[in-house]
Write a structure and sequence with these properties.
four-stranded antiparallel beta sheet, disordered N terminus, 468 residues, globular
Length: 468
């Protein structure tokens, strides 16, 4: 019940006040509609822990603010409805003035932070540092979508397979600095190159959930053609590819401008994971059931070839040539404690490496789910390959391009996915059995931090996000 401007109790307490108690809309033309639609309107649709969505009450007539009700089954407003909401909100805004002069920002703000004593929908912001409050303040003070982008910051996004949230880690401090809530069974994660959004596949609702990078709230759920697994974004950020983990197998293509599912590309076998090659020319998906790697041309969004391997395709990593083209795919396979290297041009397996036993370390065989090795990554500088072992709880390190063993490091019980900081200095490993992320110095191969997260962390990713 966000923004319940003139409460019934307030009217009773001040019967002589005119209904124009809301701040008048002065110079309303200074408010930018495009910024409103992209950044402000999602706040009205966001579910916050312990609160209802704003539209839940204001879309049904509560208070003086009248939002358009959502159509049955809709998760967002139409262009016409957005325009009406834009006009409605202007009654409670003083453009260009102090944010606290606008009822829109003051009413749901905690009293101790400068807000009103009471809001019938509860207090949504505990301080003026809240990311949502800062977005509204920027809009009121005239920010537009054409303004310069805010500063960015590197973040590690860790989804939790047995939870309904993803944790955001600051690699400068190795502390959790935010939590993305309201995504039941989050799976894959990727982010926009411009730092504005995070995309997480939602296994429960069969959607791709778009998350605002500043507020960390879901702004739209995009329906998919089936249950999703992993996701990847194109190099230019205009398309997200979502692996569909149901037969006969497909990649859904999500347009990131319209936030709609624009195409379903049939591939061979239900998809476990999907990646975009470093040059952006291909989307590469792997199927556990069909033991195939499917190669999609991202210019045409069409399947161009498949590569058949000896067992189900688990996580993969991609190595680039010096010119940026794809050299090799490294793939972990069902039932194999190691990985194979596949020449991208020929589709032939050119190396098979089994992760060796570690003397003195007990082997764990329970709960492997057919994947004794289930996490692999190439460092951004292209110098090392890291592969995790759920059997021994270690990450094994190999030099590139020669694939010579360099050593191993303990990274927790049932380690899964790995992701690196862009400078290749740190690697983050999700330890599903410890509900934690292990941080390892890439050069020394020594653990430097252990970050508690949610239940059964598996997939993770690195993002450069717009800073709050």
């Amino acid at each position: 019940m966000l923004l319940l401007v003139l409460l019934a109790s307030a009217l009773l307490a001040h019967p002589s006040r005119p209904q124009a108690a809301a701040a008048p809309a002065q110079s309303a033309s200074t408010l930018d509609f495009e910024f409103y639609k992209a950044n402000v309107e999602p706040i009205l649709l966001t579910k916050r822990p312990g609160n209802l969505r704003c539209v839940a009450c204001h879309g049904t007539g509560a208070g003086q603010l009248r939002l358009q009700p959502l159509s049955p089954g809709a998760t967002a407003w139409s262009e016409e409805e957005s325009r009406k909401n834009f006009e409605a909100l202007q009654r409670f805004v003083v453009p260009g003035g102090s944010p606290l002069a606008s009822r829109l920002l003051k009413h749901p703000l905690a009293k101790e932070a400068g807000g009103d004593p009471f809001h019938g929908g509860g207090k949504h912001w505990g301080s003026q540092s809240d990311p949502e409050w800062k977005v509204l303040a920027a809009w009121v003070q005239g920010q537009t979508r054409r303004d310069a982008s805010p500063p960015t910051a590197v973040r590690i996004i860790q989804t939790n397979a047995a939870g309904e949230e993803a944790h955001v880690i600051d690699p400068a401090t190795n502390k959790v600095v935010g939590v993305i809530n309201d995504i039941q069974i989050p799976h894959g994660v990727t982010s926009a190159p411009d730092g504005t959004r995070i995309y997480i596949s939602n296994e429960s609702l069969h959607t791709l959930d778009a998350v605002d990078a500043r507020t960390l709230h879901v702004v739209k759920r995009i329906p998919l053609s089936g249950r999703p697994n992993n996701v990847a974004i194109g190099r230019d950020g205009r398309k997200v590819y979502v692996g569909i983990a149901q037969n006969p197998g497909a990649l859904d293509v999500i347009d990131t401008v319209s936030l709609t599912n624009v195409k379903t590309i049939p591939v061979k076998g239900s998809v476990h994971n999907v990646y975009v090659t470093p040059d952006g020319r291909h989307a590469v998906s792997g199927s556990v059931g069909a033991s195939t790697i499917s190669i999609v041309d991202t210019a045409k969004d069409e399947l161009v070839r498949t590569i058949q391997l000896s067992a189900g395709i688990r996580p993969m990593a991609i190595e680039a040539n010096p010119d940026g083209s794809t050299r090799r795919i490294f793939a972990q396979l069902s039932g194999f404690h190691g990985f194979v290297a596949v020449d991208f041009a020929t589709g032939q397996e050119v190396a098979r490496i089994e992760l060796p036993a570690i003397p003195g370390v007990e082997a764990h065989r329970d709960g492997l789910q057919g994947a004794p090795a289930h996490g692999i990554g190439v460092s951004p500088d292209g110098r090392t390959l890291w592969a995790t072992s759920k059997v021994y709880g270690h990450a094994y390190v190999y030099s590139l391009p020669d694939l010579k063993p360099m050593g191993h490091v303990f990274v927790g019980q049932h380690p899964e996915w790995v992701t690196f900081t862009p400078d290749s200095k740190l690697v983050y490993v999700a330890a599903a059995g410890d509900n934690a992320v292990y941080v390892v110095d890439v050069q020394t191969m020594k653990q430097v931090a252990r970050v508690p997260v949610g239940q059964v962390p598996k997939r993770n990713g690195t993002a450069v996000l717009q800073a709050n």
